[in-house]
């Protein structure tokens, strides 16, 4: 069993990135988007046919559903059960796809923006409805997408997704809050870049619990109280207090 053609359902960040990764390596007969203009923008200059009806998808060896979690069920209802299908969700069990002959997941463990031209490493977490289909997906990811893969079940993938949200999304939000505080003093966010890069390096090299520093780690209540008085946003103040307490309680 070999994948020679792939259809993509979706037009968001993941769908767009997958199209770019696959376009020069494998045939993509068609791509679906609710808004046909979005599909046309993705496939511009290629032979891929944009469609706005799932019934118009051409036959392909694999159909990748790369839409929001809330839209997956609707897509499933409109697709023929003869397709071999995977979704790219981090948290949805593959059993939602059990109407299809072969099904599974192809979850990119990465933060992805459709307009980013920067090449990034994207490990894929894979699960299949059978060992044969799982191998099929692993070979596809390694040989066509050219990425590292890890075979995990739906429960473990959901736990990894939760960890990824805490690691990436929460960090990005906290950086946004830091940017607000810095802007009040006309200081650029980039002043924190060396600190953040070293923090991440140490956390992975030494382990997070060993690399942890700061006033909560030292139980320096004077500094903590001073910081709390500086924070004007009451909700951010509560976040600071809660995380500081979690750190202090651990040590």
Please describe what this structure looks like.
- Helix content is 47%, strand content 13%.
- It has helices at residues 13-22, 36-43, 72-78, 131-145, 154-183, 193-206, 208-211, 215-218, 221-230, 234-250, and strands spanning 6-9, 30-32, 49-51, 62-65, 84-87, 102-108, 124-128, 149-151.
- The chain has two domains: 6-152, NAD(P)-binding Rossmann-like Domain (Rossmann fold), CATH 3.40.50.720; 158-250, N-(1-d-carboxylethyl)-l-norvaline Dehydrogenase, domain 2 (Orthogonal Bundle), CATH 1.10.1040.20.
- The mean pLDDT is 94.
- The chain starts with 5 loop residues before the first strand and ends with a helix.
- Strand 2, helix 2 (36-43) and strand 3 (49-51) form a beta-alpha-beta unit.
- By secondary structure, the protein is of the alpha/beta class.
- The protein has an eight-stranded mixed β-sheet.
Quick take:
The protein has 251 residues and is of the alpha/beta class. It has ten helices and eight strands. Helices cover 47% and strands 13% of the residues.
């Amino acid at each position: 069993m070999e994948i020679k053609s792939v259809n993509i359902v979706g037009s968001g960040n993941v769908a767009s990135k997958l199209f770019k990764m696959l376009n020069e390596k494998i045939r993509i007969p068609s791509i679906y988007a609710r808004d046909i203009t979005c599909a046309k923008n993705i496939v511009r200059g290629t032979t891929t046919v944009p469609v706005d009806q799932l019934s118009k998808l051409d036959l392909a060896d694999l159909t990748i559903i790369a839409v929001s979690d809330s839209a997956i069920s609707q897509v499933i209802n409109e697709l023929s059960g003869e397709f071999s299908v995977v979704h790219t969700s981090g948290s949805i069990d593959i059993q939602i796809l059990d109407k299809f002959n072969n099904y599974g997941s192809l979850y990119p463990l990465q933060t992805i923006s459709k307009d980013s031209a920067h090449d990034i490493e994207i490990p894929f977490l894979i699960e299949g409805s059978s060992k044969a289909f799982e191998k099929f997906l692993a070979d596809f990811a390694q040989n066509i997408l050219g990425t590292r893969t890890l075979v995990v079940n739906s429960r473990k993938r959901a736990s990894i997704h939760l960890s990824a949200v805490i690691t990436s999304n929460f960090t990005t939000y906290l950086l946004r809050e830091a940017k607000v505080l810095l802007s009040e003093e006309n200081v650029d966010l980039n002043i924190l870049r060396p600190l953040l890069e070293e923090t991440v390096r140490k956390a992975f090299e030494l382990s997070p619990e060993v690399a942890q520093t700061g006033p909560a780690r030292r139980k320096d209540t004077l500094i903590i109280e001073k910081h709390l008085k500086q924070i004007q946003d009451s909700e951010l103040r509560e976040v600071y207090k809660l995380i500081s307490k979690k750190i202090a309680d651990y040590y």
